[in-house]
Design brief:
This protein has two domains: 55 residues; 105 residues, no CATH class. Helices cover 83% and strands 0% of the residues. It is elongated and about 75 Å long. It has six helices and no strands.
Length: 161
């Protein structure tokens, strides 16, 4: 009986240490990921500033429209993740529901403003050149594009006004 109690205590202590280490590691990694993303965003900002300087507003608009679509697609993927409900505890940040206000804002915009990236002519021209170069990749892109559009539509329906 004493051996069983010791074994249970050791397993419990190890389990506690593993969970604590995972939690601390996840929290630290979350903060590092946010910090690591900053230079990437700054680099993109340089490109956007250059587009502004050159008067290429339509190109800049396309980048921003893509960011809006990506935000909705990634949020859909995040919501589908099993750890979604634990995000606040794991990250140490008030992600849910705090970030949902941003999702609502983006969904409202997308509901009122159709994505120019969904223009059938634009999609077909991109797929046409891909079909010639790599038919398998073109099919994968077409499928992932449909899945992305469905995810955006779900988020707009769920979070839009």
């Amino acid at each position: 009986m004493r051996r069983l109690a010791i074994a249970v205590a050791v397993v419990g202590a190890v389990g506690f240490a593993v969970c604590g280490g995972y939690w601390l590691g996840f929290r630290h990694a979350w903060n590092l990921a946010l910090q690591a993303e900053t230079p990437v965003r700054a680099s993109l900002a340089i490109g956007h500033l250059r587009l502004l300087e050159q008067g290429r507003l339509s190109d800049l608009r396309t980048f921003y429209e893509s960011d809006i679509d990506s935000g909705l697609m990634w949020w859909a993927q995040l919501e589908g993740d099993p750890s979604y409900r634990l995000l606040n505890v794991l990250s140490g940040h008030d992600v849910v529901p705090e970030y949902e206000r941003y999702v609502k804002r983006v969904a409202a915009y997308r509901q009122s403003n159709k994505s120019p990236l969904r223009d059938p002519a634009l999609v077909e021209s991109m797929l046409k050149s891909m079909r010639e170069a790599d038919p398998v990749l073109a099919r994968e892109l077409e499928e992932s594009g449909r899945e992305g559009e469905q995810a955006i539509d779900r988020m707009v329906k769920k979070y839009g006004p």
